[in-house]
Amino acid sequence: MELVPTQDDVVALLRRTGGLRDGHFEYPGGQHITDYLQVALTMRDYQAAKVLSVGLSRKVRANTEIRAMIPELSVVAPAIGGLPVAYGVCEALRARQVYWAERENDNEPLHFRQYLEVQPGEKVLLVDDILRTGKKLAEVKKLVEERGGEVVGLAVVVYQPNPNCVDFGALPLYYLAQLDGKYYANSLGCELCKRGVPFDKVRL
Predict the structure, then answer these.
(1) 3-state DSSP of the chain
(2) Residue 164 pLDDT more than 90?
(3) 67-125: pLDDT as tens digits
(4) Which domain does 110 fall in, by range?
(5) 105-137: string of b/e by CB count within 10 Å (b at 16+)?
(6) How confident is the model over 41-65, as pLDDT tens digits?
(7) CATH, residue 183
(8) What's the rounded Cα separation, in Å, for the pair 163 and 166?
(9) Which residue in 10, 49, 115, 152 is deepest, having the highest Cβ count within 10 Å?
(10) Would the pLDDT of 184 be above 80?
């Protein structure tokens, strides 16, 4: 496999390791979709994680402006679920540090750990496993910028935008594969539900 795996390579790897499953699934918000993607299931496998992390880092490194920043670059994940990818990309890039945002419960905004201070002018690459709605990435981007940091790019293993995905404008976005699952707003409009196909309720 090449240092930057192809779309087909990534999809095959996700399927082989259980990270991508075909079927009928319902997300917590009530949306129905025809495939279930959970990159964390693939990142359990060391060799698979290495292939994805190195491949994603190569995509980022191709940007000459970001490449020049790498010795001082921070890699930040918008949630704990993105940490395996964030650490893998940081190691492959040889960037300066990794940290992440978190929340105590769903009703609270994202925050950084006590004593973790974003430095004014700090260059930040946001890294996650999947970009679906982009809401967490947008929230942590705002958090970094409110503290004086500068987000220079976004990097995710899989880009799987839903119809309401956040638009990040001109900010560079890097990904290894794009998946376009068939989304239904709810069970009433779902073709699979109309055919009586049972669904699995899944967590994001």
Answers:
(1) CCCCCCHHHHHHHHHHCCCEEEEEEECCCCCEEEEEECHHHHHCCHHHHHHHHHHHHHHHHCCHHHHHHHHHCEEEECCHHHHHHHHHHHHHHCCCEEEECECCCCCCCCECCCCCCCCCCCEEEEEEEEECCCHHHHHHHHHHHHCCCEEEEEEEEEECCCCCCCCCCCCCEEEEEECCCCEECCHHHCHHHHCCCCCEECCC
(2) no
(3) 999 999 999 999 888 999 999 999 999 999 999 999 888 788 899 988 988 999 999 99
(4) 7-201
(5) eeeeeeebeeeeebeeebbbbbbbbbbbbbebb
(6) 999 999 999 999 999 999 999 999 9
(7) 3.40.50.2020
(8) 9
(9) 10
(10) yes
On whether residue 1 sits in a domain, the answer given is no
- 2 located within any domain: no
pLDDT at position 1, please? 56
Q: What is the pLDDT of residues 14-32, one digit of tens each?
A: 999 999 998 898 888 888 8
Residue where the block lists tokens 């940490």: 83
Residue 32 dihedral angles phi and psi, to the nearest 5°: -110, 145
Structural domain includes residue 171: yes
Q: What's the whole-number mean pLDDT along residues 195-202?
A: 88
Residue where the block lists tokens 């490194």: 61
Token pair recorded at residue 189: 């409009």
Residue type, 55: G
> Which pLDDT score, from 0 to 100, does residue 2 have?
61
